[in-house]
Amino acid sequence: MEVLITHYKxxxxxxxxxxxxxxxxxxxxxxxxxxxxxxxxxxxxxxGKVEFLSSAGLRIxxxxxxxxxxxxxxxxxxxxxxxxxxxxxDLAGFTALFKIHTSVVDAVAAF
Amino acid sequence: xxxxSFTFPGMYASLSEIAGVVxxxxxxxxxxxxxxxxxxxxxxxxCSNIIxxxxxxxxxxxxxxxxxxxPEGIKIMITDHGKSFRPEDVEEPNIQAPLSHRKxxxxxxxxxxxCMDDVSFDFQEGCNTLTMVKFKNSGCxxx
Lengths: 111, 143
Fold this sequence. Notes:
The structure holds two protein chains of two kinds. By secondary structure, chain A is of the alpha/beta class. In chain A, strand 4, helix 3 (83-91) and strand 5 (99-101) form a beta-alpha-beta unit. Helices cover 39% and strands 32% of the residues of chain A. In chain B, a hairpin with a 2-residue loop joins strand 4 (118-124) and strand 5 (127-135). The radius of gyration of chain B is 15 Å and the shape is globular. The A-B interface holds A 19, 21-23, 52, 54-56, 58-59, 62-63, 65-66, 69, 84, 87-88, 91-93, 96-97 and B 12-13, 15-16, 19, 34, 37-38, 40-41, 44-45, 48, 51-52, 93, 95-97, 99-100, 102, 104-105, 107-108, 110-111, 114-115, 141-142.
């Protein structure tokens, strides 16, 4: 798995490439924690190149969303969600907890 | 019926290799692409749980996978020699709960049950076996 972070004026875009499972989730956790520890609470998760997302990855999404939404200081938005990843999100009831945008541009514009 | 057996070290790094085998065997069994994704999800959750809970960490034991290609689809048996557990004691997550009440963990077993048509456990002395079945004509939520 690879994580690319792009800094925008109003938000951060975190692009994930590859599998997010129990093996790679700690790396993703580390990258997201770096952002929130740095006071960045407006984050777009670009899931366009995610091949697989297990509950270990879902855990990071929920933890990060809780952290960002605390005190109304920000939010995690999802973008470019492939159908198989959407199925995982839906099964876990996450589609009600995250705004999902069809593109990164749309998500960035939403902040 | 055709059967295949594989053994993997109980390491998280084994998960992507296990996923490759799962996809190959599910394809051979004639499952649809969506069903293959569901089987990949269930097996990944099962193996992650074995490493984390049954063995209590990485490098403590092996994971044995047995695939049976049956006329109706695929039957997968996953065996470990770690700690057993009582599936009925595992609390089902409330997936309707608002963000503030949502727990970060506890989704693994729930996902397995939702992805597969049948999930059953057998705990013998020092040997835990999980059996999961996916039908070509799947009736579960993630078809």
